[in-house]
Design a protein that fits this description.
The protein is α/β, with parallel strands linked by helices. The chain has a domain of 224 residues: 3-Layer(aba) Sandwich (Rossmann fold), CATH 3.40.50. It has 11 helices and 11 strands.
């Protein structure tokens, strides 16, 4: 009975279709399981990617050059060289050109009264103009010359080296060499910022420099050499119209000093050419010297103190030089 039943079932089309469907579903389920297993398995074993490569630095050409210069500078500075000690001795030979002079063409000095010149100079002093001009350059130095003490920024030494002065100085125990050393000593003791000048005269004049020189080491040394070699004898007359004490004070005031030391024997004379040849030496008065100085001071715009060192002075010379020195705030030292 059983075989017959199976035979009956197999012959039934609906039974065959149902069996085929079940087999297909079973196969698909099996494939799905396998796929899930494979996917999970692959996800577990896969590692994240690793990126690698050589490091490359890109720099601009200018930056590289600057870096090279910096390295070279560091290399040189690692072992500093020894430098020679600096000395303030050769900065410059002289100061800037002198201040412009006041025009003379518009002023008739010969026609002016002495009182007018004195009032004009007094007005300039009251205005402070002369004082400001004298302070434009130089540092203050305290000085001493043949026992006369003072201080100034712009100092000029004026020395009469005529035969009469040398003779009278020698009679007072001061040789020309000692006179030279006195001048050298004054210059040597000046501060480096102080300006100085030297004027030699007899009838003609000669100067150490065209302008005031700063008291630097080299300038002091050159001044000492110049004094020993040149500060003696009679310098040539370059301007026949301007000689003697007048030429000397004019040359000194051209330098626009605020302090002057003036060495002389007080003999005022002016060399004059004779008609038939040769020279005569007529005297001039101290009034003439005072008037000439007034005009020169007014023209130069300077405001100096004037100290006079006189050798073997007579009564007239003593009185005249003392009046001259006091007129400009200075003093007379008689040797």
């Amino acid at each position: 009975m059983l075989p017959s039943t199976l035979a009956a079932d197999s012959s039934n089309p609906r039974s065959r279709s149902r069996g085929t469907l079940l087999i297909a579903l079973a196969v698909q389920f099996a494939v799905l399981l396998v796929s899930v297993f494979v996917m999970v398995r692959e996800d577990v074993v896969v590692e994240p990617p690793v990126f690698s490569g050589e490091r490359v630095v890109v720099a601009e050409k200018s930056s590289v050059k600057r870096l090279e210069r910096t390295r070279e500078l560091d290399r040189r500075m690692a072992k500093p060289r020894s430098f020679q000690a600096l000395a303030v001795e050769d900065a410059f030979q002289s100061e800037l050109p002198a201040l412009p002079r006041l025009p003379e063409s518009s002023s008739d000095f010969e026609g002016m009264e002495e009182s007018f010149l004195a009032e004009a100079q007094s007005a300039m002093l009251d205005s402070g103009l002369m004082g400001e001009l004298s302070r434009l350059g130089g540092a203050v130095s305290s000085t001493e010359f043949f026992g006369v003490k003072d201080s100034g920024r712009r100092i000029v030494i004026v020395v009469n080296t005529s035969a009469s002065v040398v003779r009278k100085a020698s009679a007072r125990g001061v040789s020309i060499a000692q006179l030279q050393e006195e001048a050298i000593g004054l210059v040597d003791k000046l501060e480096s910022g102080t300006l100085f000048g030297i004027v030699q005269f007899s009838q003609g004049t000669k100067g150490f420099a065209e302008y005031l020189a700063p008291a630097l080491v080299k300038n002091k040394r050159q001044a000492g050499e110049w004094i020993r070699e040149e500060l003696k004898g009679n310098p040539p007359v370059l301007n026949p119209e301007l000689v003697g004490h007048e030429a000397a004070i004019a040359a000194a005031l051209e330098l626009q000093p605020d302090l002057i030391f003036f060495v002389t024997d007080g003999s005022l004379n002016r060399r004059t050419s004779k008609a038939g040849g040769g020279y005569s030496y007529p005297k001039i008065s101290y009034d003439q010297l005072m008037r000439f100085t007034e005009k020169a001071v007014f023209s130069s715009g300077s405001d100096p103190r004037l100290h006079v060192i006189g050798f073997q002075l007579g009564t007239e010379e003593r009185s005249g030089l003392e009046r001259w020195a006091k007129r400009y705030g200075g003093s007379l030292r008689e040797m």
